[in-house]
Amino acid sequence: MKMALFTGCIIPIRYPGMEVATRYLARKLNIDLVDLKFSCCPSPSGLKEVHFDAWLALAARNLCLTEEKGLDVMTLCAGCTNTLRETTHILTGDEKKRLFVHDILGRHGKNFRGSMEIFHLADILARDEYLDRMESSHARPLRGLKIGTHYGCHYFRPASLMASMMQNGEFDPHFPLPETMELILEALGAEIVTYNRQDLCCGAALNINTGMADESFAITREKIVWMNDAGIDALAVACPTCFNQFDSGQVLLRRIDKSVRCFPVFHIAELVAYALGCEPQALNLRAHKIPISILDALTNA
Q1: Per-residue model confidence as pLDDT tens digits over 51-74
Q2: 120 within 8 A of 155, measured Cβ to Cβ
Q3: 119 forms bridges with which residues in the sheet?
């Protein structure tokens, strides 16, 4: 399989270990990643709220790059996935917007056709062929680890747009949580733990979009409490913004309440690469704010 890798802007700048993890697991699973000169996605919040047409044109330009190579897109961020999928949805269904964007892109020799598909890394890895490969080739089974998952709002909302990420690609009006990360983690030997309010936002968008930091932290705190009540050993996420919210959020929470039990947070790519044999030093896992000591026993096993 050959796909264009869309790293987004947060991962290369703040969390390069997540990109290292992705490239490592891709080599192990025979996924050929192609690097293109992408810009920011742009984010599904921020520019989109200020100048929608500019947001749409920038996203369409990224998609044109993949079409020129005849490739589909693999992202590492729920927000990037949402932006690129929404752009495709708008431009294939709204002639007025499509003509407007075509005019802008045409000045730069680009033409959007909508022939590509956009997938998050987790969607690819949850396919049977890769689940089988991971199950048969992992060097460090995650056996004994109780892991919870947090997908992030943009991974599965709105369902009418992101439905293909759900089981069998079918739309479900009840907005069920996806199960892609659960399938991946189970293939690697982990025990999946569910918790209350699992579909609740991490809280980051409230601070990013409105500056309501206290309210944002209150949501993060509620999530962390529910996760601790469920007894998770670690949390797997599909979004670098969600990662930061829970990794840094626990540090802030501990300053308020020293009795709070902290758990490490991982991007799903980090856990997969680690299980497939990548060393923690290469993944820069020690840069996480919450210690990753739960992995030490697996590394030394």
Answers
A1: 999 999 999 999 999 999 999 999
A2: yes
A3: 74
CATH class of 141-300: alpha beta
SS3 for the chain is CEEEEECCCHHHHHCHHHHHHHHHHHHHCCCEEECCCCCCCCCCCCHHHHCHHHHHHHHHHHHHHHHHHCCEEEECCHHHHHHHHHHHHHHHHCHHHHHHHHHHHHCCCCCCCCCCCEEEHHHHHCCHHHHHHHHHHCCCCCCCCEEEEECCHHHHCCHHHHHHHCHHHCCCCCCCCCCHHHHHHHHCCCEECCCCCCCCCCCHHHHHHHCCHHHHHHHHHHHHHHHHHHCCCEEEECCHHHHHHHHHHHHHHHHHCCCCCCCCEEEHHHHHHHHCCCCHHHHCHHHCCCCCHHHHHHHHC
With respect to CATH, is domain 2-120 assigned 1.10.10.10?
Answer: no
- Rounded-to-integer distance, Cα 132 and Cα 128, Å: 6
pTM above 0.85, yes or no: yes
What pLDDT, on a 0 to 100 scale, did the predictor assign at position 206? 81
- Which sequence spans correspond to the domains of the chain? 2-120, 141-300
